[in-house]
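Batch manifest, entry 17 of 40.
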Amino acid sequence: MKALLGTALLLVSLGAFAHEPVYNKETINVLQEHALTNVPGKKTIMLTVDYKPGEATVPHSHTGTAVAYVLEGEITSRVNDEKAITYTVGQSFYEPAGSRHFESSNASQTKPAKLLVVMVMDDKAEVLTPLAH
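Output type: structure tokens
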């Protein structure tokens, strides 16, 4: 009986570490958006993405090129067929146009995280397009 109870407690405690991401709760703030006069039909956009603990952006793609810089906390990112990488404050990453961004999440369940993102994209394009399941 003690062994069974011990196994049950172990499974419950392991389950506490397996957190599902919380999608579509992050806060996106557009800081600047400008038409590129030297590249007709294109624009640049600068935005921040604020994640509370455990939050993530839904898997998505970008029609434009993106460069992201971690301002606060730790961000886990997985693009295309690459392995997931966790970036810390002061680190940055690049996403080529057309990339599939399977994971963009706060790596922490207890602390907030924040990204600064600069994109170059078609002037009518959405910032991101959710991937079909």
